[in-house]
Amino acid sequence: MQVYDAPLRDMRFVLNELHSDDGFGALPIHAEFTPDLTDAILEEAAKFCREVLLPLNRPGDEEGCHLENGVVRTPAGFIEAYKAFAEGGWTSLASSPEWGGQGVPEAVGKLVEEMICSANLSFGLYPGLTHGAVCAIEGHASDALKAAYLPKLVSGEWAGTMCLTEPHCGTDLGLLRTRAVPQDDGSYSVSGAKIFISAGEHDLTGNIVHLVLARLPDAPPGIKGISLFLVPKFLPKEDGTPGPRNGVTCAAIEHKMGLKASATCQMLFDDATGWLVGEPHKGMAAMFTMMNAERLSVGIQGLGVGEAAYQSAVWYAKDRLQGRSLAGAKYPDKPADPIIVHPDVRRMLMTMRAYNEGCRALSAWVARALDAETHSPDPEVRQRASDFVALMTPVVKALFTDLASDSANLAVQCYGGHGYIRESGVEQYARDARITMIYEGTNGVQALDLVGRKLGANMGRYLRSFFHPVSQFIEENNVDGPMKPMVEGLAKAFGALQLSTATIAQRGLKDPEEAGAASADYLRLLGLVAMGYCFAKSTRIAGLKLFFGAEDKAFYDAKIKTATYFFERILPQATASFLAIKAGKTSMMALADDAF
Hints:
11 strands, globular
């Protein structure tokens, strides 16, 4: 059974209590967003997700999308849900008021995003991609394009996509062949084929705005010859309403393992009219604005699915009667005990819970940095926040989705045989979560980005945005008391991270394959240390709250117990990651290609 209620108490904790000392400071632009106001936003979002989106999740998965004469039909109920979503202002939540948005802090917007992904990830992809397109257009398009397209995208009247991948090239975009030919009126004629385009065609909005990577006739070869173009499905008329159909068609939709209610399209551009976004041959800079926003969002997708899987598993573990507790019957009035009494079931549930709470805490920290990067009045703070976001983007995308897949599979395991059949609903989470590890750059690509680009950037400046607060926390809290075992565990893992960083830096300069061989383990290690830091801070706060007699004792007590589980049962993985990094590439690369 698919069960989900937004974890509002934990969301309020990470929003209002956990990161108040993160060094980014209060932002004057967000002064109006008091805890009372943000609570109201979260409550209403939770209600919408529970009452509107969750009931469509399993039926949407079973029905899927249908292609009829070039038009994609979304599952029953999606059109009505999207209309209510847009009318409720959810599409405009985190966008700039300049274009009709509400200007809600990213720290709040990401929590709402998590709820949407928990309740119905397929649905969430449609407005999620639009928000990424808004970021790219706002950051790089001409004033005329902004004025023509952003208000309608922000309102949800129109939708957006990103069109990168082609049949012959995936991650290596330097191989793409789509062409854009300048026209006398300042527009461009765009021709080519794209695949794996999420929300490339659907019936939810009056128009779809594609951001398309293509080459100009004078483009240099490789990645440096790519430009970005805005290509609408319908060409707007002078009054801004959709006009004639552009040369854009959906040739097919993919029949996928999961996310069946989200249309993944094969798109054809045949002399389609488009407009340049940004500078010629500088399209990747503009596209990366959208791509980086989407990578953070994909991490939130993973967290959302992981939370829904966890809640569904908890419901089943309390409901399913089977066997007796090893310590003797816990519910003697029943024919058997619920399976939640068994240690191995508790192991699975506690692992999922710790993954979710750790990821939520880390995502809130990154979201605060996103806000500071854009809105802090202090240039030094903006730079530090920007460094932190750059460092953590691949970690959020890859680690959160790795753990989401683990959590979804643990939920299936909790259900046993019932988890393997469609009726339970949890097998959908396993299928949906799996793609998050692949799209927007596979998790291996994220690890290469972290090690190959982020570690050495600006003489290690990105790393300092993370290393300094962790080091300071350990130094200030490494004293006798109930937290000492956690602080010592964090210090040990942090030491392994520092040694691993030095090892990769030394070996990678001599042999890039050494850095590549270490990359996945290093990303996991960095992510575990970041989660450990957040859990240690959470424990300090919870301990003080309990000491001073906080009313919500059960929440703070559970927070400490979950953190203790993380430090005792999950953080020790940091040692294994360090040992794998230390071992180097030799055994990984030893077999000849033809020996596989």
